[in-house]
Amino acid sequence: MNTNKKLIVIMSMMMGVVVQMSPAAVAFAADKLVNIKKVTIKYKHEGAASGWSETCMSNWGNLVVERREITMKVMGIENKESKKVITKGPDIITIDYLTNKATKTRNPMYDSMKKQVSKKGGVKTGEDVMKAMGGQKTNRTGRFAGYPCTYWTLMGSESCVSKEGLTLHVKAGAMGINNIQTAVEVKKGKGCSTDAAKVPAGMKVQEVNIDRMMGGQRPPAGDKTGKPPAGFNMDKLKDMFSR
């Protein structure tokens, strides 16, 4: 995959953090992705997307399992989501309990991100990516489920991230659609169970090629003019992921 396509994938995944509001959306597992060996976080979702989710991490973030039950209401249309996303190393398995189907993809950013994380650690790498995309670390702080965090802003959204690299609060809004995700319980020392990372018996897993899916697509524009967000540095991103 060439550098431009890699950038499209990384930006799409970062946008996934804002839209899906989930640590599991960023599947950059390599060495220490977060500065905590095991943790389980329960979230409450409010706004257009309401419901709950639970994310467990083991082996410093090299195994992440997210379970979510979400109802999305937009313009009077309601859609339900019942999914589990398993991220282990470069592999991402998404289980849809409503369709009883599962897909498996390989994170195309895994190898390049592994190099970055090996050099700087997962938290510092994540911060560098955020800054290159126009994200800013603020002086605002918060506390959720008993743990402190510092707010970052990116593309009109804000997230409160702990020193370990855990997202404890996210507020995202676009076109009048607002979503809030709040950590209501954090259990340090409790990682993913053996069963959590398993695909249900009898469920077939379909392989999906992300390279083909991303072919010909462009990075998300920052506004209606098609200009990237303020502070967006394409050259810096290219330099990071071409090494």
User: What is the alpha-carbon Rg in Å?
Assistant: 17 Å
Query: What is the CATH architecture assignment?
Result: Clam
Number of strands: 12
Strand order of the largest sheet: 7-8-9-10-11-1-2-3-4-5-6-12
CATH superfamily: Lipoprotein localisation LolA/LolB/LppX
Strand percentage: 35-45%
What is the CATH domain class? Mainly Beta
Unreliable sequence segments: 3-30, 218-224
Total domain modules:
1
Report on the structure:
The protein has 243 residues and is of the alpha+beta class. It has one domain (3-241): outer membrane lipoprotein receptor (LolB), chain A, CATH 2.50.20.10. Helices cover 22% and strands 42% of the residues. The protein contains 5 helices and 12 strands. It has helices at residues 3-20, 110-120, 122-132, 210-214, 234-241, and strands at 39-47, 49-58, 63-74, 77-88, 91-96, 101-106, 136-144, 147-154, 157-161, 167-174, 177-188, 205-208. The chain has a 12-stranded mixed sheet, with no helix packed on it. Helix 2 crosses helix 3. It is globular. The two termini are 13 Å apart. Mean pLDDT is 80; it is low at 3-30 and 218-224.
Relevant terms:
243 residues; alpha+beta; outer membrane lipoprotein receptor (LolB), chain A; 12 strands
